[in-house]
């Protein structure tokens, strides 16, 4: 039986069905949204709507709730949903020239409208408009031309690296070379440049920033710094596993602890490493420690374990076992979808029925959730 192919089908099902894939809207005041856009260097996407607007409600149900739209907008924009007839709405309606609903605005941190579209948009059309808005602010080519012409000012280079990131260009090699060439740079700027260009922890750049956590937390925010360091560590772990370099693995774990991240992140990295190497014994030891000490989402962890060891009957069964143990206490719609995916991936109809029956027995579901539960079950059954 080709469990890997079934896993691909189940991941596809998971990405479409989990409700958390929808656009996450920020309901802060407009001034706070502008400040956040400035801080995060992002565009604000505004769904300018009215309560009575039928097409607006259709976009809520059919477009904003889809994972493909959510993935694009949550990554690239600060998303705001503003009623143009209440609160700050009337003022913004006049400022932005909103005369029909829905009006979809892409606004920079200065309050300037970069792109505007009126009327109902399909998911594909909305994503196309998002890409158009992003192209209007991506200045990578202009920065590259100036750099190639000899511009080396540290402030310019920092902005250039940020444009490289927006354009999804690799930054670490470029940043390494620049900092090795430039000997007299202000220490704070040097730290920001190294941090911005960092892509892995087994690099020269980490040596520059490793003692600057307090400065970085103040400059970029604690959560952003933790995410950056963890992602860089994950890249190093991937390298270590690919080349079976235990030294890189150990050094990465040491660096994460040295930087002051919670040991829970180390256990997640260890799971990544052992999962890639298909080391079941070490993986299970770390997994049990992670569950005991760190309180992770066990249902999501069960699917990650299943995915890492899809060819192992013992690990597939163990993944379903720890899922059920957690699902008994946390019978949520999201966990239900994860359970369906485990059933699809293992081609296990009995497990599918058990997951379905457990959520049916739960009280307090509204009619919409009940309908979705049945629809997901029927689709999963077809896939098995």
Describe this structure in words.
67% of the residues lie in helices and 7% in strands. The chain has 384 residues and is α+β, with helices and mostly antiparallel strands. Among the domains are: 21-137, Glutaredoxin; 317-384. A hairpin with a 5-residue loop joins strand 3 and strand 4. Mean pLDDT is 91; it is low at 15-20.
Q: Characterize the largest beta sheet: strand count, sense, and whether it forms a barrel.
A: 4 strands, mixed
As a percent range, the share of helical residues equals: 55-70%
- Ends distance: 12 Å
Number of strands: 4
| Tally of individual helices | 21
Low-confidence stretches: 15-20
CATH class of the domain at 21-137: Alpha Beta
Element layout with pairings:
Layout: H1 3-17, H2 30-40, E1 43-49, H3 54-62, H4 67-76, E2 77-83, H5 89-96, E3 103-107, E4 113-118, H6 123-137, H7 140-148, H8 154-166, H9 172-181, H10 187-197, H11 204-209, H12 213-220, H13 222-242, H14 246-259, H15 263-277, H16 280-294, H17 298-308, H18 313-327, H19 333-346, H20 349-360, H21 367-383
Which characteristics define this entry?
alpha+beta, 67% helix, Glutaredoxin, flat, 4-stranded mixed β-sheet, 384 residues
């Amino acid at each position: 039986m080709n469990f890997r192919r079934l896993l691909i089908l189940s991941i596809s099902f998971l990405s479409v069905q989990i409700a958390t894939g929808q656009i996450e809207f920020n309901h802060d005041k407009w001034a706070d949204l502008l400040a956040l856009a400035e801080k995060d260097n992002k565009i604000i996407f505004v769904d300018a709507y009215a309560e009575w607007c039928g097409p607006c409600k259709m976009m809520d149900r059919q477009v904003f709730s889809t994972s493909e739209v959510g993935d694009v907008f949550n990554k690239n924009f600060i998303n705001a949903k503003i009623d143009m007839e209440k609160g700050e709405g009337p003022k913004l309606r006049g400022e932005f020239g909103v005369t029909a609903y829905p009006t979809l605005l892409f606004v920079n941190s200065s309050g300037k409208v970069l792109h505007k579209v009126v009327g109902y948009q399909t998911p594909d059309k909305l994503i196309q408009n998002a890409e158009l808005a992003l192209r209007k602010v991506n200045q990578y080519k202009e920065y590259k031309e100036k750099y190639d012409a000899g511009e080396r000012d540290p402030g310019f280079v920092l902005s250039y690296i940020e444009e490289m990131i927006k354009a999804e260009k690799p930054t670490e090699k470029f940043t390494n070379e620049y900092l090795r060439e430039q000997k007299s740079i202000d220490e704070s700027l040097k730290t920001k440049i190294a941090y911005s260009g960092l892509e892995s922890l087994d690099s020269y750049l980490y040596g520059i920033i490793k003692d600057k956590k307090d400065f970085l937390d103040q400059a970029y925010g604690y959560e952003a710094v933790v995410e950056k360091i963890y992602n860089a560590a994950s890249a190093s772990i991937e390298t270590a596993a690919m080349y079976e370099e235990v030294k890189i693995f150990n050094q990465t774990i040491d660096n994460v602890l040295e930087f002051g991240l919670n040991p829970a992140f180390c256990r997640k990295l260890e799971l990544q490493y052992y999962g890639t190497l298909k080391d079941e014994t070490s993986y299970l030891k770390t997994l049990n420690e992670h569950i005991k000490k760190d309180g992770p989402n066990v249902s999501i962890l069960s699917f990650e374990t299943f995915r890492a060891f899809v060819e192992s009957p013992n690990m597939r069964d163990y993944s379903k076992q720890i899922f059920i143990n957690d699902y008994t206490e946390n019978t949520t719609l999201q966990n239900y979808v994860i359970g369906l995916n485990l059933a699809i991936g293992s081609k296990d109809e009995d497990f599918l029925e058990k997951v379905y029956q457990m959520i049916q027995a739960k009280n307090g579901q509204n009619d919409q959730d009940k309908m979705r539960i049945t629809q997901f079950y029927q689709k999963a059954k077809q896939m098995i």
